[in-house]
Amino acid sequence: MREQYIEYKDGETTLEGFLCFDEALPGPRPAVLICHAYGGRDEFVERKARRLAWQGYACFALDNYGKGVRGRTPEESSALMAPFMDDRRMLLRRLKAGLAAAQALPLVDSRRIAVMGFCFGGLCALDLARGDADIRGAVSFHGLLKPSGFTEPKVRAKILMLHGYDDPLAPPDDVLAIAREFTTAGADWQLHAYGHTVHAFTNPVAHNRAGGFQYDDAADRRSWHTLEEFLGEVLK
Length: 236
Description:
By secondary structure, the protein is an alpha/beta fold. It has six helices and ten strands.
């Protein structure tokens, strides 16, 4: 398994993505972009990249904050995320820079790319799809489901949302709103909601049920199996 860090640019900002792939496989292969949560590109998304790389994908964990920029506390992480939540066009530009960097890699089949993300990264994956990006699929794990504000978004990608039904960061009103949004856009979308499940259900270190953050082994396992099936469909 080959791992390397790839620098790329969004304007004057230098970013650093994490690439992982099986170098024993011949020729270009489908790629999965992975968007990080609000703390920045970290070991969590790198582990996900390694796991998918064993299945034959080129996995590229994006960096939306800048090379070496990470939130060390919840307050720092929220401060890093806030400008992108306030300016979703800026976020889309940053995401498209990562997509372009992946498309330029010789080992990537640029016609077969999907994107996935966790929490803030789930919103990122959905925004890239909303931005008419040339991707085949977008997957949100316990993502923020806030509307982008884009006028009549064009969605070419198939959409998969994996959601904790009791997630306080994506309450039922948000779920209904995003369902209407993607239906109006004519998108091929699906949503899997896991009962008695809150935010961050894929993160083994999340243990604050009262605060709405809690790992859930069953939801983690079920959502990953659903991801694998979805990627097999959209990237075949």
